[in-house]
């Protein structure tokens, strides 16, 4: 098995983004916690295989890969888990926070990037820039699956908020282990 070569922490470029609650939908974004959305830019080589990433994640033991796919084109969020997205192929324009939210964040991500999406942050694919955009979706070890929330009327807003507020944050970085950006908050 090939060992994963990560960008050194001293050279790693990280974007941190607080995203306000969506004013018209029930999307809490980062308003319920002090944990920002994080993007680790080019933290692993862009040609890294999913099996190499999976093996590394298993060794670190913080998150488990659950799927390999693109990102849904509909704004959604998870109330019962944080999510880690590892970009395997291509480039894409993503929207975090809800497309009508004036506080939304719309970064371009590419193969080799890792994204830490705190519970409650709305996200969706805006544009697959190269065709074949693919990510690996990962969740904390022991998480009991993930829910799909859309910020629509009828969703139990108080129950969703209670779940998000009760979630523990990462005790170790999912890629770097005992140090790393997810711990520098």
Automatic annotation (TrEMBL):
InterPro entries: Cupin_1 (IPR006045), RmlC-like_jellyroll (IPR014710), RmlC_Cupin_sf (IPR011051), UCP019307_cupin (IPR014500), YjiB-like (IPR047121). SUPFAM superfamilies: RmlC-like cupins. It holds the Pfam family Cupin_1. It comes from the Eukaryota. Residues 75-123 form the Cupin type-1 domain. This is Cupin domain-containing protein. The lineage of its organism: Eukaryota, Fungi, Dikarya, Ascomycota, Pezizomycotina.
